[in-house]
Structure formats: C-alpha cells, structure tokens
Amino acid sequence: MIDAADSPTTSKPPFDRCPRCGYSLRGLPANHACPECGLRYDEACVVFAVVNPKQLVVVWIAIISGGWVSLKNLPHLANFAAAATWQKIGAIAGLLWIPMVVGLAWLLYTRYRRGFKVVVTGDGVMLNVPGLTDELIPWDRVESASIKDVREGQGQVVKVTLSSPERTIQIGGVANVFPERADAERFVEQVNRRTNATHGSDSAEG
Q1: Which of 114, 94, 118, 97 lies closest to 17 in space, CA to CA?
Q2: Which of 30, 135, 177, 180 has CB 3.0 to 4.6 Å from 43, enough for a Cys bridge?
Q3: Alpha helices in the chain (DSSP H)
Q4: Please, what's the b/e burial string for 161-196 (b: 16 or more CB within 10 A of its CB; e: otherwise)?
Q5: Which of 36-40, 101-105, 132-136, 167-171 comes out lowest in average pLDDT?
Q6: Do residues 74 and 95 touch, judged by C-beta distance below 8 A?
Q7: Taking each helix axis from N to C terminus, what angle separates 54-71 and 85-112, rounded to the nearest 10 degrees?
Q8: How buried is residue 77: exposed, middle or buried, by Cβ count under 10 Å (0-12/13-18/19+)?
Q9: CA nearest 177: which of 150, 141, 144, 199?
C-alpha cells in the first residue's frame, strides 16, 4: 500500500503522480486537482496497490498454453484439404490466437500500464484491477463499504455497495489489494467518511 501523508497539515499531494493519468503532481498543493485530467485529490487520499494479481497470471497461462497447442497445428494449413478435422480446427485456432493475444496485450497495457491499484480520490473510488473494472466510481454512486469475513491468513476482502445502479463490488481476495486487515479498515473508513459527507450534503440540499 502507498500511504497518503499521515498529517492533515501536509503541504504536498498524497501521490507523486496522478493515479489516473500519470501527470507529475510535484510542487502542487495538498488539496488540488490534476492539471492534466482534473482528478481531485486531498491529503487523505490513498493508493492501495494490488500485491499479487493471481487471476491475471492464470489467464495468461491459459492463453499461452492454448496458443502453444494451436500453433503446433499451423503447418496443417499447407495441406489443409488433407488434414483431419481436429487438425483443421487447431490450425484455424492458431491463426486466430495470434491477433487475439496481441489485442489482449494491448488492452491490458493501455488500461493497466500505471499498475494495478485501488485509489481513494476526491472524486470517487478508482478501480484498476484486472477482472474487476477500470473505472472511477463517483462518491454519489457509492452507498457504503464494509469488510467481508475471510479465513485467517487470506487477503482481506472489502464490499463496496453502489447506490445507482444498486450492486456490490468485492475488492480483494485473489487480487490481493488488502493484505492486512488494517489496510481494509483504512479503505472502509475513508470510503464511508466520504460517502457520508456526500449523501449528507445531498440530504441537506434536499
């Protein structure tokens, strides 16, 4: 986890670079917005880095294994008419596998080139976790956050309930965002404090 500054009197941003666009925030105030993308931040914002995104490794192992089997059948394209049915299928799969892997690699690079992380920002919760989402969820869409009970020794799991549309996102588990309960508790505290402030303001205006 990359900690934000502990003191509320800090004079510098909680991150060296904007977690969304990568723009350098050095020299800017502690409470400001990224000059490049406009993401708001303050001294209490924090980044939780994914410790071990195992599901991504599993996906790539499956892709590479399937591709190796498929590529072995590419030579059958030279004599496609005489090849057995399973050899034809394997050869075609091998052809399709190459652009699929290139496309997937490019997709992962563009979405996650700044790393796998969960960020509490001034504008909402930013999720960059493979298999989950890569969006910024505004605070007015977040209802609450809570810690899900897990077995001892496992990575912590946090549930974030969205108000519109009503659904729950589970963060953690295989993608180990919160290795310690203290990390999960800090995330939940930050989220609930900001959502309470947001929904409280909405109620007061109503």
Answers
A1: 114
A2: 30
A3: 54-71, 85-112, 181-205
A4: ebeeeeeebebbbbbbbbbeeebbebbbebbeebbe
A5: 132-136
A6: yes
A7: 150
A8: middle
A9: 150
**Which distant-in-sequence residues (6+ apart) come within 8 Å of 128 by Cβ?**
111, 112, 114, 115, 116, 117, 118, 119, 134
Distances (CA, A) of 165 to 4, 149, 172, 199: 30, 25, 21, 16
- Under the banding of pLDDT at 50, 70 and 90, the label for residue 175 is low
Q: How many whole angstroms separate alpha carbon 127 and alpha carbon 15?
A: 16
**Helix, strand, coil % in the chain, rounded to nearest 5:** 40, 25, 35
CA angle 44/158/17 to nearest 5° reads 35
- Give CA–CA dist 118/128, Å, rounded: 6
Torsion angles phi and psi, residue 183, rounded to 5: -65, -45
Q: Which residue has the tokens 């590479």?
A: 64
The closest of 95, 66, 65 to 78, measured between CA atoms, is 95
Which tokens belong to 40?
């708001």
Rounded Cα distance between 49 and 117, Å, is: 4
Average confidence (pLDDT) over 52-77: 72
